[in-house]
Specification:
The structure holds two protein chains of two kinds.
Chain A (H helix, E strand, L loop, with lengths): L4 E6 L3 E7 L13 E4 L8 E9 L5 E7 L5 E9 L11 E3 L9 E2 L17 E8 L4 E9 L8 E11 L1
Chain B lengths: L4 E6 L3 E7 L13 E4 L19 E11 L5 E9 L8 E3 L1 E8 L9 E2 L2 E6 L5 E12 L6 E9 L2 E3 L10 E13 L2
Antiparallel strand pairs in B: 1-2, 2-3, 4-13, 5-11, 7-8, 7-13, 9-10, 10-11, 10-12
């Protein structure tokens, strides 16, 4: 069985804690084989993954969070209205209950669309600010055309590491 | 040399495992000096903290998409059991990442992250596009969630000989994470 955990002085990477993947010797030099690597600047720890709903008329929303004094890395995805109806929440659903309108994607529908009533042209942007007091604020804004005519939802994930 | 690992009671952050960034002392109080920390939490109203969860993979795999000669896009769907993300009452939505390989096989020559430009005319037959996209439908059926992929190539008149003259197969790689939406 391979050595999997090293807490101490790694022959290549120095003092720290290292955990290798199954079947890989943690004392090896290749840190691509590590699950945890103390020589890394960060470990991609997630602070939250939150869904932010927008009504038809809403054009922006804010999310304030503890950012530990840095402008944290944030990524977003979205749910949008299509010809089947407005998007429903992706957060949770009772056992055995289907919901075909709950879905998210890296972005919305067709660009451009031939039918501006279905909301597929709506997009979003995120303004990410370090407030300087241990909190950060995300301002999420609808983008595209007919932004006040369509519901949408934005799912934003924020990581501990600074941009 | 700086202290790099603390397993136990951190004077500022309490019990846990802490790893500092190279050259930083793990016993310090500055959170941004830590590459891994057990103490992360957030009680801000409206925030459901993941408490510093790492993106642990639930499952991963791939699916191939073949675009026929003359066509410029095609789709594929992968399903997964919703029960894997159940909390005893509700199923929840997992985080998913995907990328597309230029050709199928174990070592595709080029990988793309999701990006797609798709423009079409009013009759929906002339288009210009490149890349791929994916969407996640976590509650598509009573039992399964799905990941839906659409791959595009070049620009073409859909369904005609104006497009590329031969089939092409792309391979989509995906990873489903235990990270839950709130």
């Amino acid at each position: 069985m391979a050595n999997r955990i090293l807490i101490g002085n790694h022959g290549t990477h120095g003092y720290g804690i290292y955990v290798s993947k199954s079947g890989v010797d943690v004392t090896a030099a290749d840190n691509d084989s590590f699950l945890m690597d103390a020589s890394a600047a960060g470990h991609g720890q997630a602070l939250f993954w939150k869904e932010v709903p927008f009504t038809n008329s809403a054009t922006s929303a804010t999310v304030t969070y503890n950012n530990f004094g840095v402008r944290c890395y944030a990524i977003g995805t979205m749910s949008w209205k299509d010809s089947n109806g407005n998007p429903t929440s992706c957060i949770a659903k009772s056992d055995g209950t289907a919901d075909t309108l709950a879905r998210w994607s890296t972005w919305g529908g067709n660009i451009p669309t031939t039918n501006t009533s279905d909301g597929q042209e709506v997009a979003f942007n995120i303004n990410n600010v370090d407030n300087g007091n241990g909190t950060g604020t995300l301002t999420i804004t609808k983008d595209g055309v007919n932004t006040t005519s369509h519901q949408m939802r934005v799912q934003v994930m924020v990581f501990k590491e600074a941009v | 040399m700086a202290n790099r690992v603390l397993i136990g009671n951190h004077a500022t952050h309490g019990y846990g495992i802490y790893v500092s960034k190279p050259t930083a002392d793990v016993t310090g109080s500055t959170v941004s000096d830590l590459s891994f920390s057990s103490h992360i939490t957030d009680g801000t109203t409206g925030i459901t903290s993941l408490n510093g969860e790492m993106l642990n993979v639930y499952s991963s795999g791939y699916t191939d998409i073949t675009i026929a000669a003359g066509d410029m896009w095609n789709t594929a769907t992968v399903t997964y059991a919703r029960s894997a993300f159940n909390n005893g009452t509700n199923d929840r939505c997992p985080f998913v990442l995907a990328q597309m390989g230029k050709t199928s096989g174990s070592s595709p020559s080029t990988h793309w992250m999701p990006c797609m430009l798709r423009q079409k005319n009013s009759t929906d037959d002339r288009r210009a596009a490149q890349g791929f996209r994916y969407s996640v439908k976590p509650y598509l059926t009573a039992d399964n969630g799905s990941i839906n992929f659409t791959a595009f190539r070049g620009s073409a008149w859909d369904g005609s000989s104006e497009g590329d003259g031969s089939d092409i197969t792309y391979r989509i790689y995906y990873a489903i994470f235990n990270t839950i939406l709130s």
